[in-house]
From TrEMBL:
<dbReference type="InterPro" id="IPR027417">
    <property type="entry name" value="P-loop_NTPase"/>
</dbReference>
<protein>
    <recommendedName>
        <fullName>NACHT domain-containing protein</fullName>
    </recommendedName>
</protein>
<dbReference type="Pfam" id="PF05729">
    <property type="entry name" value="NACHT"/>
</dbReference>
<dbReference type="InterPro" id="IPR007111">
    <property type="entry name" value="NACHT_NTPase"/>
</dbReference>
<feature type="domain" description="NACHT">
    <location>
        <begin position="15"/>
        <end position="124"/>
    </location>
</feature>
Length: 1064
């Protein structure tokens, strides 16, 4: 890495550069060194860069004519970079007329010269109250002449207000590239050459390795602290020990305080101390009161309600917490530094480093745990992402007072849980990093009773044991578990830092995971086992599905009752484990998606057959004993032997098998047939086939299914091997429902259908076409279906043969679906005659996106009792209102009418109507009143179900309507004696993510108004499938919808009608 990599990408100059890193990682040092190299451009650059080839191209930065270095921690309350330059640079060098001239020169420079602005410490910058800026603005700088380098802690750059599009390059400082060379360079600065630098460096290196402090190389500040403390201890004839950050900062604190008072003193039974890491110090006891007072100041300033004073504060603010002598002690010790300004009263103070302030603040909390409730809780509430801001304080507190740390972890968890949806993994992954670091610090300080709250677990080889220990106390609270474990031999991976002992493996038992929603298992280091598994394994992580003694329970507890998504990625599992998993999922009452990504399935001793391991790529969806399998594997493989064996014996009532692009290759027909026969409760079976052999249909032989769906490539099934198909379907003695999506009509279809005992038949033509060239045979075949009650047809263009074939059938229910939302009726006479000949027809459903005058004419004078009109995606536009009204008025027997429309449409209704269901994507309050008024003018009682979105909408505009305008309607309705309000329910769509991306298909919160909520359902008055399409098709901008159920009796006079707001 060198400067060219930072400032150029593919020879293009980067204008907006961001450098992120953890506390003490060297961000400010890097920025200062850059300025140093630039300012010494006229001096020989013989600096010992020969030892380090990194950043040896200082000529790159010398291309900038001017560099402005801004300390953002000193720019509190300022928003403009030009203003910061004036105050921090010009005002410190000039006064009077010279200052005014310098101001003018500054503006000339930033407009005409090539400049680099270094903004150091964005995370320490405090904006003025009321400002929503994420970073200072550069309004006066020329975009084509100015480059900006910004340093910050990582969490600050996660702010969503800092867009990726604003960042040309994002860099992360990783700490010390060569710790050994770094150690020797530091030692050369602090040791006399007569001492043995190489020997000391070797001893320090051994100490760091033995104490497992190598991770400190990410922080040059802490690494330097270790080196300097080692040298100090060495001069006193002692050795540095331990791996705790608290211990290191205690040593750092002691070394600073010793400069003011070198009188030794000890904490003992007579002089106890609340924190363990202070107990072995030599110089803190005599001055502990000073430390306590300064710690109190560190805490109250850090958690100040005025955030701009949390890091940089003036003398007056400091005096609220420390006396003059205590301030003098802090200044002499170097704990606090003071920077003079033009006005003495406005002297700028800050701690030596923010991390030292955080350590002292944690020490104060450790001594006063009540502050967590009294002050920190309010701080977390006031500031978004505050849990990130206080992460270092939490880590130190874990080493100082574990009881207080436990309490704070719970409070931080509650904040993040309130702030974001539990599916927002990025935020919870950041929180896990905080908890993980705190746990490590607690263990390093030999604390016990660690009870941190965590719900999202991302576990890998590096954090396995620590995260497992945290997991054991949070099993019942876990929402997400993601494991990525390789099968590697690493003693550190198996060693628990809490107990310092070796473990052969760890077990994640899923039996108690009552809230777990997402499970992601990846890697060769996982062993997936259930209560039936007994094969030994050397793998580091075992995933146990069932409780070992669950057979002894009268009623075993549910397994994974809240699970919604499972991913098995590059893992190996036995057929018995996967079968146990599916049996568990099939018993749940909600949908669960399981993705197999290169998942290897192995055979078990108890399997009826043995086979070589098979690799699967598939998505399986489970819901109430329904299994939907989508294959993504190559077409030559299809359903594998392993999956056939896994399916064997599952408690499945409904099975859907299909491949990617709606095709599925079935090769292992014998094994699949054996598995299907083992489904004793199977009632519904669906195949979407690409191609099949003559033996394919044998898998259907003798099944007790009631429902069968057959389709093929892109939906159309090419009917072949008819003899085998005829035999198999004829053997289905319980078959009642048959759906066939055919490629084209053939005489084979006639033969397949002839004489079946089915009650329902669904015919779909490929791409909407269902041309019937053989009318007579097809008509005879349909007539032979003596038990047929329901017929559904999906076409785009009709044909005379289609309607002729339906003539005279004894069906009771019929559904006409327009493919792609269109139902192009060309043969109105044939359609009208066929519909009129269906004398037993009671229910008619039509699915279209655009209405047709020809279609409405075809409905004239039918004797149906129920009619439903809806769109393919929920609702449709009624363009021919008068023709539809005429057709409805002609339906003298119509009792139930359901209509799904995009906007309110006033249609005339027959007087025979008893049940009315109106679904509307957007309905205005006055339109609700008008509809109620119209129905009140009728001559008979009508039960009305009304569901609508609270909005106004047309082809070009959309507007949400306030809820209170609708709520007042309920009060009006309840005053009417002829109205009975059975239900008035508001459904509020829940926010899907913290980005407020509302998704109409997401869950809705339901609230009744005025305790009116009668859920009784009248006889088949609402069609479930159409209702689901209504909800899913609703605009994403619709936040609220209302469901009303009314019983409307005839109004006694016009006064009542007008009271309801009708204009009729």
């Amino acid at each position: 890495m060198n400067y060219e990599h930072i400032f150029y990408t593919h020879d293009k100059l980067n204008r907006r550069i961001y450098l992120q890193g953890d506390p003490g990682s060297g961000k400010s040092t890097f920025a200062a060194k850059l300025v140093h190299y630039w300012s010494h451009r006229n001096q020989p650059s013989s600096e010992s860069r020969s030892e380090n080839s990194m950043f040896n191209d200082a000529l790159i930065i010398r291309n900038f004519k001017f560099i402005f270095f801004i300390s953002l921690r000193d720019a509190r309350g300022q928003t403009c970079v030009v203003q910061m330059i004036q105050k921090q640079l010009i005002d410190t060098m000039y006064s009077g007329d010279k200052r005014a001239i310098a101001y003018l020169l500054l503006h000339q420079i930033i407009e005409t010269e090539r400049c680099l602005v270094v903004r150091d410490g964005l995370d320490e910058w405090v904006v003025p109250d009321g400002s929503n800026l994420a970073e200072p603005f550069m309004a006066e700088f020329s975009n084509d002449r100015c480059t900006v380098l910004t340093t910050s802690r990582s969490w600050k750059l996660a702010d969503e207000r800092i867009k990726n599009s604003q960042i040309d390059i994002l860099l992360e400082i990783e700490g010390i590239a060569d710790p050994d060379s770094f150690t020797e360079r530091i030692l050369r600065c602090i040791l006399d050459k007569r001492n043995y630098i190489e020997t000391t460096a070797s001893e320090i290196k051994s100490f760091i390795l033995e104490s497992k402090l190598t991770s400190l190389s990410f922080s040059p500040m802490l690494y330097t602290l270790v080196i300097c403390t080692w040298v100090d201890k060495m001069g006193e004839g002692e050795r540095l020990t331990g791996s705790s950050l608290c211990a290191l900062y205690t040593t750092f604190l002691e070394s600073l305080c010793k400069k003011v008072n070198a009188t030794p003193g000890f904490f003992n039974d007579l002089n106890p101390i609340e924190v363990k890491c202070f107990s072995s110090t030599r110089y803190l006891q005599p001055i502990i009161q000073n430390v306590q007072v300064i710690s109190k100041a560190a805490f109250h300033l850090l958690f100040s309600t005025e955030k701009e004073t949390s890091i940089v504060f003036n003398d007056h603010q400091l005096s609220n917490y420390v006396s003059k002598s205590e301030e003098e002690f802090a200044l002499k010790a170097g704990l606090i530094s003071k920077r003079k300004t033009k006005k003495m009263s406005n002297a700028s103070n800050s701690f030596i480093h923010k991390s030292m302030q955080e350590f002292l603040a944690a020490f104060h909390i450790a001594r006063n745990a009540h502050l967590i409730d009294e002050i920190i809780s309010g701080y977390l509430t006031r500031h978004m992402d505050a849990y990130l801001d206080i992460s270092n304080v939490f880590k130190f507190l874990c080493g100082l007072n574990i009881s207080a740390a436990n309490k704070l972890s719970n409070m931080m968890y509650e904040q993040i849980a309130r702030m974001v949806d539990t599916k927002h993994l990025v935020a919870f992954r950041s929180f896990q990093g905080i908890i993980y670091a705190g746990y490590r610090e607690a263990v390093a300080n030999e604390n016990t009773g660690i009870l941190f709250k965590l719900s999202h677990f991302c576990v890998n080889n590096n954090n396995l044991i620590d995260m497992y220990n945290i997991w054991t106390d949070n099993v019942s609270n876990a929402h997400v578990l993601a494991l990525d474990i390789d099968d590697v031999t690493d003693t550190n991976m198996h060693s628990s830092p809490a107990h310092r002992k070796q473990t052969s493996h760890v077990e994640f038992n899923l039996a108690s995971c009552l809230k777990l929603k997402s499970l992601n298992l990846k890697g060769s280091g996982l062993r997936l086992t259930d209560s039936a598994s007994s094969v030994p394994s050397t793998l580091p992580v075992w995933i146990v599905l069932h409780i070992a003694n669950s057979t002894q329970c009268v009623e075993p507890p549910p397994i994974l009752p809240s699970i919604e998504q499972i991913v098995l990625d590059k893992v190996t599992c036995s057929s018995s484990w996967l079968r146990s998993l599916f049996n568990t999922l099939l018993n749940l009452d909600h949908k669960v998606e399981c993705n197999l990504l290169n998942c290897e399935i192995t055979s078990c001793i108890e399997d009826a057959v043995t086979w070589s391991p098979t690799t699967e790529i598939a998505t399986l969806t489970c819901f109430k004993n329904t299994l939907n399998v989508l294959y993504f594997d190559n077409l030559s493989t299809g359903i594998s032997t392993g999956m056939c064996v896994v399916f064997h014996g599952l408690n499945i009532k409904s099975l859907h098998l299909r491949g990617n692009y709606r095709d599925l290759n079935v090769n292992h027909t014998e094994l699949l047939s054996r598995s299907l026969s083992s489904f004793t409760h199977l009632t519904e079976l669906s195949f979407e086939l690409l191609d099949y052999s003559p033996d394919m249909w044998k898998v259907l032989n003798g099944l007790n299914i009631k429902y069968l769906n057959l389709s093929g490539l892109f939906g159309g099934l090419n009917l072949k091997h008819l003899e085998s198909l005829l035999q198999s379907i004829s053997s289905l003695g319980h078959l009642e429902w048959l759906r066939i999506h055919i490629e084209h009509f053939s005489i084979g279809l006639v033969k397949v259908l002839h004489g079946l005992n089915i009650k329902s038949l669904y015919l779909i033509g490929m791409f909407g076409g269902l041309n019937i060239p053989h009318v007579e045979p097809f008509s005879q075949s349909l007539a032979s279906l003596l038990h047929l009650e329901t017929l559904s047809i999906e076409v785009y263009d009709d044909s005379p043969g289609l309607w002729d074939a339906l003539h005279g059938l004894n069906i009771k229910s019929m559904s006409l679906n327009g493919s792609f939302g269109r139902f192009n009726v060309k043969n109105i006479e044939s359609l009208s005659q066929s519909l009129a000949s269906l004398t037993q027809l009671e229910t008619l459903s039509i699915y279209i996106d655009e209405d047709s005058p020809v279609l409405w004419k075809g409905l004239h004078n039918l004797n149906i009792k129920s009619l439903s009109l809806s769109g393919r995606f929920g609702c449709f536009n009624v363009s021919h209102i008068e023709l539809l009204s005429q057709s409805l008025l002609s339906l003298k027997q119509l009792e139930t009418f359901s209509i799904y429309v995009k906007t309110y449409t006033e249609i005339q209704l027959p007087q025979s109507l008893k049940y009315l269901n109106v679904y509307c994507w957007a309905l205005l309050p006055y339109e609700v009143r008008k509809l109620v008024g119209t129905l009140s003018a009728r001559y008979r009682t009508v039960e009305t179900n009304l569901e609508f979105g609270c909005a106004s909408s047309d082809a070009s505009t959309f507007e949400r309507i306030p809820l209170n305008e609708y709520i007042s309607i309920q009060q009006e309705l309840e005053t009417q004696k002829h109205l009975l309000v059975k239900r008035f329910r508001i459904l509020d769509r829940l926010c899907k993510t913290d980005m407020f991306d509302y998704d109409v298909a997401s869950a809705c919160s339901v609230r009744g108004v005025g305790e009116v909520d009668d859920d009784t359902q009248d006889a088949d008055s609402v069609q479930e499938a159409a209702s689901e399409r209504f909800v899913s098709g609703m605009s994403n901008e619709t936040i609220n919808r209302i469901s009303i159920r009314l019983q409307i009796t005839p109004a006694l006079n016009a006064r009542i009608i007008n009271t309801c707001g009708s204009k009729t």
